[in-house]
């Protein structure tokens, strides 16, 4: 995501770009193709609400900046309530085709394993930086890369789901159209079924970590078994919360918990289990997930998995232009900088591409406005975060500077969020005018 967006932005500014993509010659645990911008964890870019949600605001800013990732996502959009979900394979194929067709972009297939001393470079290696490059980064920075484990949710074939037990409904019927209001497939559980599910989850065989690896999970992408270990009710207040839904098969009975599945492709033949990232072994996954009402005979297109995700300590290593302080000809972008999520990664690619191109063209532009969503993120990773406890971060309104005169707490949240987004849009529009 980040590399694709960086390349597009720089090329659109008139700079010749070479993309070094090691796949498919050198594969990873999670990727299946050699396409750029391949989505492996989910097919969702999350909320598209640009007035009350920070990631939705980031969508808005990227669209205003003619971002390749958001423009392509809009073209391959799937119904998902208030979220922006895409048909993942055509999305990645389209991003790849657009970059291949750009007259100023060249794509090569070799692996880069060193940090060059000359030329302008952006390293956007994502969550699965290769061993050779990872070692080069550690050697240059003089510090061990941090790591957490990112777990992948399973995907179910739609025709194997029992619709006499499941139903289609977005939470609180959210969405402008009937298709949006019925974008999620819901599987209800009563208390007994939920307790049995939790017992099985806790007892299931899990993937073991290799020697020297640690399980420093990012809280936004926790495996469900790790969540359940934190308390039996944790899942009921997380991905399995039963609120905002009514079971049409038993409208008078309120479910104790609900498992939601989201459409994963345009054909509607695949559904991913929302929030069900897991490190259970494959055999255990099929046994446990078939305990979910409606999934007793589920057939899985992909089971869950777990992989290591490395990122650098950006607050100590990067300057405000995302350059490596010890090698200013190198910028980092995407998840390796300590942002989390497709959108955040692409956003940092957008900034890195523009900043690198501006430097090469001898253009001076103002610093990214801190009160924009882009600015809040880049400020966080390049100095706003506490370096000693630095962990991957999604964009959120907690990263934004307060707006004077607004009420705090939950009651004032709606007005406060609208003030944040209004201010951000104004500042981002002014910044873009300099380009």
From TrEMBL:
MF terms (GO), sorted A to Z: flavin adenine dinucleotide binding; tRNA (uracil(54)-C5)-methyltransferase activity, 5,10-methylenetetrahydrofolate-dependent
Broadest EC class assigned to this enzyme: transferase
Catalysed reactions, semicolon-separated: uridine(54) in tRNA + (6R)-5,10-methylene-5,6,7,8-tetrahydrofolate + NADPH + H(+) = 5-methyluridine(54) in tRNA + (6S)-5,6,7,8-tetrahydrofolate + NADP(+); uridine(54) in tRNA + (6R)-5,10-methylene-5,6,7,8-tetrahydrofolate + NADH + H(+) = 5-methyluridine(54) in tRNA + (6S)-5,6,7,8-tetrahydrofolate + NAD(+)
GO cellular component, one term: cytosol
Location relative to the cell: Cytoplasm
UniProt EC number: 2.1.1.74
Boundaries of every MnmG N-terminal domain copy: 2-363
Required cofactor(s): FAD
GO biological process terms held by the UniProt record: tRNA methylation; tRNA wobble uridine modification
Superkingdom of this protein's organism: Bacteria
Keyword annotations from UniProtKB, A to Z: Cytoplasm, FAD, Flavoprotein, Methyltransferase, NAD, NADP, Transferase, tRNA processing
Listed InterPro entries: FAD/NAD-bd_sf (IPR036188), MnmG-rel (IPR002218), MnmG_N (IPR040131), TrmFO (IPR004417)
Pfam families: GIDA
PANTHER family named in the record: GLUCOSE INHIBITED DIVISION PROTEIN A (PTHR11806), METHYLENETETRAHYDROFOLATE--TRNA-(URACIL-5-)-METHYLTRANSFERASE TRMFO (PTHR11806:SF2)
Membership in a protein family: Belongs to the MnmG family. TrmFO subfamily.
HAMAP family found in the cross-reference section: TrmFO
Function (record text): Catalyzes the folate-dependent formation of 5-methyl-uridine at position 54 (M-5-U54) in all tRNAs.
Protein name: Methylenetetrahydrofolate--tRNA-(uracil-5-)-methyltransferase TrmFO
Organism: Ruegeria faecimaris
Encoding gene (name): trmFO
């Amino acid at each position: 995501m980040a590399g694709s967006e960086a390349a597009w932005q720089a090329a659109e500014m008139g700079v010749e770009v070479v993309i070094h993509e090691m796949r498919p010659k050198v594969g990873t645990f999670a990727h299946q193709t050699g396409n750029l911008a391949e989505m492996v964890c989910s097919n969702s870019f999350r909320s598209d609400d640009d007035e009350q949600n920070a990631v939705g605001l980031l969508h808005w800013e990227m669209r205003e900046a003619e971002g390749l990732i958001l423009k392509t996502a809009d073209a391959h959009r799937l119904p998902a309530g208030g979220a922006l979900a895409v048909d993942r394979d055509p999305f990645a194929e389209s991003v790849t085709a657009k970059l291949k067709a750009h007259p100023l972009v060249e794509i090569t297939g070799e692996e880069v394993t060193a940090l060059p001393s000359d030329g302008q470079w952006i390293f956007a290696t994502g969550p699965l930086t290769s061993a050779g490059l990872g070692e080069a980064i550690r050697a240059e920075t003089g510090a061990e890369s941090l790591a957490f484990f990112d777990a992948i949710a399973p995907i179910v074939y739609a025709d194997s789901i029992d619709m006499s037990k499941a139903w289609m409904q977005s939470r609180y019927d959210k969405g402008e159209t009937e298709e949006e209001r019925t974008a999620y497939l819901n599987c209800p559980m009563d208390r007994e079924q939920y307790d049995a599910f939790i017992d099985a989850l806790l007892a299931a065989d899990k993937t073991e970590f290799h020697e020297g690896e640690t399980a420093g999970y990012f809280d936004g992408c926790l495996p469900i078994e790790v969540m359940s270990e934190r308390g039996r009710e944790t899942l009921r207040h997380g991905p399995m919360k039963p609120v905002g839904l009514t079971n049409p098969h038993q409208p008078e009975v309120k479910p104790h918990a609900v498992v939601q599945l989201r459409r994963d492709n345009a054909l509607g033949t695949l559904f991913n289990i929302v929030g069900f990232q897991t490190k259970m072994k494959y055999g255990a996954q099929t046994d446990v997930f078939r305990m979910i009402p409606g999934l007793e005979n589920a057939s899985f297109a992909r089971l869950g998995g777990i992989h290591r995700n490395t990122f650098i300590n950006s607050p100590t290593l990067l300057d405000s232009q995302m350059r490596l302080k010890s090698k200013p000809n190198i910028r980092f972008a995407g998840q390796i900088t300590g942002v989390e999520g497709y959108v955040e990664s692409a956003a940092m690619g957008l900034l890195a591409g523009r900043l690198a191109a501006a430097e090469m063209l001898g253009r001076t532009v103002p610093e990214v406005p801190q009160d924009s969503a882009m600015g809040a993120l880049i400020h966080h990773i390049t100095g706003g975060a506490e370096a000693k406890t630095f962990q991957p971060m999604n964009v959120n309104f907690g990263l934004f500077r307060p707006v004077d005169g607004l009420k705090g707490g939950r009651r004032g949240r709606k007005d406060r969020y609208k003030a944040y987004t209004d201010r951000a849009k104004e500042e981002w529009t002014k910044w873009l005018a300099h380009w």
